[in-house]
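DM from R.C. (forwarded with permission)

"hey, sorry to bug you on a friday — could you get me a structure for this? deadline for the figure draft is monday and I only need the backbone to look sensible"
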Amino acid sequence: MTRKTAAIADQEPTCSPALRAASLRFGITPESGGPTYSGTGVVIGEVLGPLKTTVTLLQDGKLRVCLVATDIGLQGLNVSNLFRRELAAALDIPIANVLTLWSHNHSATIIASNEVPIYRTCIDEVPEADLLPVGKELLDTLLSHAKRLPDLLEPVTVWWAEGEEGRITYNRKG
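My reply, with the result:
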């Protein structure tokens, strides 16, 4: 965040950037014929382009947070645990400081053969994720990009606005 120091009441605050950020983006293209989250046995048909993943590292003083935003679902409890644990170790941060974000999508590729649905929190033991080739590719590429982020950190400022977009009613391609 940008720390603002109040000066005299009629002057603008002075800013000294404390927040630093780095972000990298890459794409993974699943193969046609792979499994999906549809629950009906439907497989991946034509692949029109890579599914994008962005990994961002934020640092404010000693606090570091990693954000992963991906078109590939990381919602399996064991998959999320594995990815967050590996990223935390690679960046030397607590696992609680690794957040994953994804779209709800029933046609996305499954990345582990034994994904445990995130809502199944009543099970005694969560098995280690058995990643499929696309899952291994995603994790390896994500880790290689994440490891580069600390050297890419640079000062940033934060701005925001409020608004509303009422024209979008259905957020799906196709």
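R.C.: lifesaver. The radius of gyration is 20 Å.
me: no worries. The chain has one domain: 17-153.
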